[in-house]
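Deliverable D5.2: sample structural annotation.
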Amino acid sequence: MADSPAQPVALRPRRFDHEVDPGRVQIQARKVHFDLSGISLEWIPGHPVASTMINLFNVVLPAAEHWFVRTYNEALPLVKDSSLADDIRGFTGQEATHAAAHDDVIEKFLIGNGVDPAPMMNLVEYMFGKVLAPTDSDDPERRLNNLCERLWLIAALEHYTAVLGDFALNSTWDDHGADPTMVDLFRWHGSEEVEHRCVAHDVAVYFHNSYPDRIRAMTVAATAMFVFFQRGTWYLLRSDPNCDIGWWAMQRMRMRDSELGLLPKFRTLFGVNTLTYFRPGFSPEEMGSTAQAVAYLGTSPAARAAHR
């Protein structure tokens, strides 16, 4: 595989004890582009499991984000709060752009490197397109209840995307020679997830402020995310024509990579961060730093190119 072209490396703003609060940030889509030519599936050299587990997001995110957009387009006409409506429009713009970027990665990066993601994509499409589709009931109350259930599930999933976005911003990928284009792809996406981390929660609360519904949705989301990480990574590893790693070796390498800061630790992701969400007074503001996200977007090669 040819070496990827040299790319400018974005600064990695770290979180400081004292940050300048940027105040209310206008949520807006950035029309980014990534040149994926010549990039190996193992874009973190010597770390196939970390590379593959992060690659997995390219497969599941487009279907999930298209579903977010459809659900919010259904909810938007019912929102009378103009500020929240603006946030929803910004959120859907960013999510649609994320989906398009990762669709491009599937075609040019995964399939281009000999991986067939179709079976997994079909499963994900079925889940978001059929299982989680709006009810076809004629009862307005039942339709509204169904919408509220989906909004709380989006809020739970967005809790994880914010946590993972914060991880991406503070990961050690570049310390281990990771490809700068892939690093920028996931840090750009992660920064926008941190930037809009409050929107899904605010929308769910606006429609139906229910603690039991919040916990029920998180239980479903946490279970699905755990299975997704394990089975999805295993599938992609087995699909990689240049990789021969067994199940238990994958687990050992995942734990090693987590200790190195290349992957989130499962005990933190599914333990501490999930329990934090269960707290009655939880606010998404607690997860990540808007100042750090905005600082990265100001240095991201793709985000800067989008404004030229």
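Annotation notes: The first helix runs from residue 48 to 75. The radius of gyration is 19 Å.
The annotation will be released with the project's public dataset once the embargo ends.
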